[in-house]
From TrEMBL:
Domain (MnmE helical) ranges: 10-75
The species this protein was found in: Rostratula benghalensis
GO cellular component, one term: mitochondrion
InterPro entries according to UniProt: MnmE_dom2, MnmE_helical
SUPFAM superfamilies cross-referenced by the UniProt entry: TrmE connector domain (SSF116878)
Gene: Gtpbp3
Taxonomic superkingdom: Eukaryota
GO biological process, one term: tRNA methylation
Protein name, per record: GTPB3 GTPase
Length: 78
């Protein structure tokens, strides 16, 4: 089968953290679905969170992730 062929079967998640992030992505997309007609700002936040969770599965690291690590792991300003 071709790589990425949707008819080739279901891919499996090999790490529990992937499953957690995928679940969080689904929740964020549901938020987008609820808010898209009411509040575009909240809807956009749902999409941003979904993208962030998918990025954690695929290995994409953004500036926000780096800042989270810096403030979590180092004593900045103390």
């Amino acid at each position: 089968p071709r790589c990425g062929d949707p008819l080739a079967g279901s891919p499996s998640l090999t790490q529990s953290r992937h499953s957690l992030h995928l679940g969080d992505c689904v929740v964020a997309l549901a938020r987008y679905g609820r808010e898209r007609r009411r509040d575009l700002g909240l809807a956009a936040e749902g999409l941003r969170l979904a993208r962030r969770h998918l990025g954690r599965i695929t290995g994409h690291v953004g500036a926000e992730d780096i800042l989270d690590i810096i403030f979590r792991d180092f004593c900045v300003g103390k």
